Amino acid sequence: MIINPEFNGLGQWGETAYIGAIGTQADNLYNYSGAVGTWTTVSKGILGPQMDIKPNGNGFVDMKSGVNHAGLLAQIVATIPGHQYSFKYVATDGGHGYYNATVISGSQISTGQTLAADRGTLTDGWKQPTGTLTTLNFTATTTSTTVYFVELGGYGVLTSGTVNFSNTSLVDVTGLN
Q1: Rg over CA atoms, the chain
Q2: CA-to-CA dists, residue 177 to 54, 91, 141, 174, angstroms
Q3: For each of the chain's 177 residues, which pLDDT tens digit applies?
Q4: 66, 160 in Cβ contact below 8 A?
Q5: Do residues 93 and 128 touch, judged by C-beta distance below 8 A?
Q6: 114, exposed or middle or buried, with CB in 10 Å at 0-12, 13-18, 19+?
Q7: Is residue 128 classed as helix, strand or coil in its secondary structure?
Q8: Phi, psi at residue 111, to the nearest 5°?
Q9: Going along the chain, which residue ranges are E strands?
Q10: Numbers of helices and strands, H then E, in the chain
């Protein structure tokens, strides 16, 4: 159900960068083409937040943000209300990176209901990547659902941070159990 899980460029994925709480700024996703193997800068102005993203074309994507800046990578998928789904991925530390992952109803990140989330114990739910497969199970409530990763650079340290995401999939498991 995820389109372009290979990360052959950034097609079908939306990106944004921000500072502070996610809010409505995450509703304005950009759609960069992102050539395989090259870093693409996602920025909101000269002094605004910045995130770099590199699709690797082999099922991996790297996200890198500056100190206390965050980047968001999202995809909106068609779902059937009442059906059960399984969203899977692996988050690996590329150096000083922290992340969280969320599944929401609809396509507006600022107003969508959280259906499932992978949060850590650090302030605002940040967690360190472990390199293990994570599964978020949820029941769809609308005809569109958004899955997204947020990467935070340099939590608690004065450096940028990188997180690598891979093995991304979304499966309708209704009737399979």
Answers
A1: 15
A2: 36, 26, 19, 7
A3: 898 899 888 888 887 766 655 555 555 666 666 677 777 777 655 555 677 888 899 999 988 887 667 788 889 999 999 999 999 999 998 888 889 899 999 988 878 899 999 988 777 778 889 999 999 999 999 999 999 998 887 666 666 788 999 999 999 999 776
A4: yes
A5: yes
A6: exposed
A7: coil
A8: -120, -5
A9: 14-18, 40-43, 50-55, 60-65, 70-78, 84-95, 97-105, 114-118, 133-139, 144-153, 161-172
A10: 0, 11
The whole-angstrom separation of Cα 66 and Cα 36 is 22
Global confidence as pTM:
0.86
> What tokens appear for 91 in the block?
């988050």
Alpha-carbon distance of 70 to 88, in angstroms, equals 22
